[in-house]
Amino acid sequence: MNYESIDQVRMPAVMRCHANDTVLVALRDIAAGETVEAAGETVTVGAAIRSGHKIALQDHAAGDPVIRYGEQIGLASAPIARGDHVHSHNLKTALSGEVAYGDFAGPQADTGAAKLGSWRGYRRADGRFATRNEIWLIPTVGCVAPMCEMLAREAEQRHAHAIAAGRIDGIVGFGHPHGCSQLGDDLSGTRDALAALCDNPNAGGVVLIGLGCESNQLDAMIEHVPERSRSKLRVMRAQDPGDEYDRANALIDGLVEELSGLEREEAPASALAVGLKCGGSDALSGVTANPLLGRFSDRVAASGGRLVLTEIPEIFGAETSLFARSVSGEVHDKATGLLNRFKRYFLEQGQPVSENPSPGNIEGGITTLEEKSLGAVQKGGKAPLVDVIDYGGTADKTGMTLLEAPGNDAVSSTALAAAGATMILFTTGRGTPLGFPVPTVKVASNSRLAANKSGWIDFDAGRMLSEPAVDVDEDFARTLLSIASGEKTASEKNGQRVISIWKRGVTL
Question: pLDDT tens digits, residue range 137-160?
Answer without folding.
Answer: 999 999 999 999 999 999 999 999
